[in-house]
Input
Amino acid sequence: MVFVNSACLGIGLVAVAQLPAATPNQSIDQLLATRYPPGRPGASVLVKRGREVLFRKAYGLASLELGVPTRPEHVFRIGSVTKSFGAVVILQLVDEGKLSLDVPISTYLKDTPKAWEKITLAHLLSHTSGLPSYTSGPQGGYAVLRAKPRSLDEVLATLHDLPLDFEPGTAFTYSNSGFLLLEKIIETTTGQGFAFNLRHRITEPLGLKHTRQCLVDETTPGLVSGYTDGGHPTYPAPLDIAFMDGGMVSTVADLAAFTEALHGGRLLRPETYRRMTTQVRTPDGSGVGYGLGLWIRSSQGHTLVGHGGDVVGFSAEVETDLQAHTVAVILQNEDKFGAGHAVNVEYLSRRLLALAGGRTIPEPRAVSLSPAQLAAVVGRYTSVQGTRVISLESGRLWSRNNGGRPYELQASSPTTFFMEGQEVRLRFLLEGGRVVALQKYEDQGEVGPVAKRVD
Output
């Protein structure tokens, strides 16, 4: 695997030799084996450093009903990892002079609402357009839309009369709607749909034989079954597999090859690639943690770039450490929507990349607190990102964010707490000895807004 910047290639190699105990392969297997036990939905995992495959293994079952073990070559739905492929197609059209990132999308689409007149391709690619997501909007949300087959134009029509959440370019809200508009722009610009462009621009040139848009009327050879709520089967509706916001399938090997090609300069011009992998910032200078079709986060001084995907029955993560030249791909056939507490693939990816580079990420250690100390943090906390409720039930502390499922909190100190197997940490802020607010942060330094206690 050849990256655009190869100056740091030797760092990871030296560090691996200094590991005191297990090899990276053994450490990775130990990390994964406890999270994907036999007899349950599983995962296919691939970890590479440069061109070297450090680890490739599958866990659990591809079909609970048939008792079929998962294999590394099995095909999975990849959800929003699709967005990275769609972004590359758009950026290739930019490189060819057929599109421009910073002109209004009305240049390429007819009859766009007046409210969209300031929205650009860059806004759509970076989730800074202000468009509400069709998967959670007032038009009924995903549950209503997926009740029957919908065309791309039918779903886009539901957005036309909705107000923007904010002025384009001024904030960040993850919105699937933007990538539906980008899919329409690909169609109008090239005269062909996303599936055609994906095949002729990316999958065929790179030899990705198992990567494609999963169309409604097609059978997908090698596709594993999807599950939710700890093993209940899911049955994807046409909307789940239709569009460029999350409608592709792939394998770990294909996704690693795509990642290598992207970061190795084989898909985009250098200046376009740099913009894709540069974190977008709002006018006040705040980073949004996203580039153009890629999430960007830091870990132990390294930059991690990639994308996750969650769709009914499946969860995925594809991520690259740009300094260590390592790649981690995790595809699992259980989603994170139910109460089954499926494995958090973003949490695993960061640790896999660290191990591949000869590093480890320390885990927090739980300490015991008195009932009074636990009760001191109970309450309702609100910020611009919504409401988090902290509750105490039978001596156990729970966090529920924006009405989602509850996660148990473990104390690392009287004012700091963590969730086992999750990236999120919570720090409670005191004033006059009383808890007045909390702040979400991650173990590598990313910090969220302060949420004030309101009860």
